[in-house]
Amino acid sequence: MRGWKTDTTRTVLISILLIYGIIIILILFFANQMLLDISAGRRISNFIIIPVAIILPLTMVITIAINIRRLIKEHQTSQPGVRFKTRLILFFSVIALLSALPQGVLSINFINSSMNTWFSSNIGEAIDGGLSIALKYSDDKLDNLRDFTGNPVAIGILKNFSYPEQIWLGISGANPEIDGIQIFKDDGTELYFKGPPEARLEPLPEYSPGILPRQDIGRTSILRSLARVTEKGEAYSVIFSILLPESFSENAGLLTESRETFLQLSRYKTQFKVALVIFYSIFAIPIILLLIQVSFLMSEEIISPIVHLEEATKKVAEGDFSVRILGKPRDELAVLVNSFNRMVFELEKTRVKTIQTEKVSAWQEIAQRMAHEIRNPLTPIKLSAQRILRKYKNDPSAFDRILEPAVNSIIQEVNSLDTMLSEFRDFARHPDPAATELPLREMIREVLDSYGRSRPDVEIQINDIPEEMIVFADRNQMKQVFSNLLKNAYESIRGAGQIVFRADLVRKGNLKYCRTQIQDNGSGIDEEYHNKVFHPYFTTKTEGTGLGLPIVERIISDHNGQIWFETRKNVGTTFFIDLPVERNI
Amino acid sequence: MQLSVFSKIVLKKISIFPLFLLFLIPPCLSGQTVQAEIRDNEIILKVTGYPSNDLLSSLKEGFRARAKYTIRIYRYRTGLFRIIGDILISEEQIFYEGMWDDFTHTYLLLQGEDRQFYQDPWEFLSEFLTLEGHPLPLLPEKEGEYYLLCRVEVENLLLRPPLTLLQGIMSNYVSQWVKLPVTKNGRNSQ
After folding, report:
1. Is there a contact between A430 and A554 (Cβ–Cβ < 8 Å)?
2. In angstroms, what separates the C-alpha of A288 from chain B's closest C-alpha?
3. Which residues of A touch B124 (CB under 8 A)?
4. What ipTM is given for this predicted complex?
């Protein structure tokens, strides 16, 4: 009994598919993590790259290579179902590639064209323009501070520090852009402050006169300049402040960042496209390889029941009717499998019945024939015995005259019966052939010699049998075969005639046979008898048991050979015998 | 398929994979050194011999640079498990970002929220490539011998997302790990 893969193998398959499912989930997780790292500006972890980009694809490639090698071996040994399996695998693989590649190409092209749109030259120019405006504004304010600090007008105002309020009025009048002023004494203490609170510096910073570093406090940016003034022998530090608009610094920073991003993208656009392809490949390739690997498994799963069916069908064709296939209870092929099993069961039943019937018929026929053949000689035996008895009783004087012929008749019929029974015994109990390599021509010559010159009017030709022709057969049984056929040929020829022996080498599949022909130009066989020629006890002769040709057919069959004939009434008959020439039959 | 042909195909496939290693192995500092010491409970790391012109021109173009100082504390592992390596106690990373500020026409050094402006490029570089005054991390209570491993990574061009995808192939500089033995009281035992 054949069966599907066992439950254990099925469990292994399911386990493998589960593991593959987990691997896909891990790949998706790692892909997501990489994208997060990229978005956050973090370096991509080797912990992700190494297993996903190296270990997993390498493992997949090795596994697929092993499977391909196995598939090639199956092709070389012509395993059942291998072509279908190959087509399935190619189909699945092509589908995987056809779905992944356009997706990848489309995704990358979409990102590419989006980036071209988002980072077009117009936007670059806008960013540069905005930045220029901001820079110009800031520079104008700085230039204003710088120029004003050394301006004679400002210097002229920075007098009489006893009245700092007036200094402020003068400064603010001369330069309305100044938002604040802070005056320090030489010892660093603050003398005066006017302006927004965030412009106040504590303590006096240690800088040289001129522009001070910009200060960002919250959302406010403050530009300052420092001037040192001496009045009446006392040194003063004066700080002028200009407050930039709220969020100027923040917005300027954004502009700077945008410009930086734009510059980077312009410079590394090509490399980024390549990196995108590699990034996509890192995750797509393992999945594609995974799909190909799964295609091997799935094709095996699909092919396996079909292969089992094919093998079972072959077995049935070879005559093994014990084959059954175990099917899965809810499988779609279960209907086919059940039908197959039922068909084989019915075939076996019918075959057994047919064989039985044929056997019975054959024995019935033999028994009928036997009964007929036995009865034939019994009648003259009985008649002769009755004649002897009658004469002995009625006319004893004439008893001597009829005794001898009557007894001879009885003896003759008993001999005939004995011969018939011997032949039947030989037919029923034919020994297995003891085959050896026999030179065919030499053997036929021996048979011909045993017939001597019994029919000098019949020409025998054996020249068309090659000297080197060898058959693998039992010597005695073959002599019996050719003797029988020669006898039939002689008996079919009335008067002068010809019997030709011919032999050729023929090939049937991987096997070689010797085809021997025995052709006569006798009376031929009537068409109505063609189907009965090899039946036991069938004969058209007045003498003969009708077992000659059945015995010949039996012997040829035991040698794994074949016998048949071609005949035409009043033209002749040719018997063909195929015998193996090699031992491996 | 002959085994030799099969092997050739496998080897061919394997030979492609080293290209991926470009993503894994950053180039090391060549010709540059990192000087490390502990002084008064403070760590000092200084990069010397760095190709400053590349860095400055990158900044002038409008890009940012970043220096990452990594400080790890290890405790020596004793006994049979030594072969698996020493015990990592903690790791700290300090980031310096440098840029050219078009508004102030100065070099700007950022560390977190702190900003420092520098007119002089060499003064800026000196500060950018030096970690100074960083307090020594607290050692755990457990007795044992400890040491520091320090490393500096300098990125001339700090990529912005999504270009961070290219970080693996940019010419970043990474120093060797420098070992500083340290005792429980925080001083360099050397």
Report:
1. yes
2. 16
3. none
4. 0.72
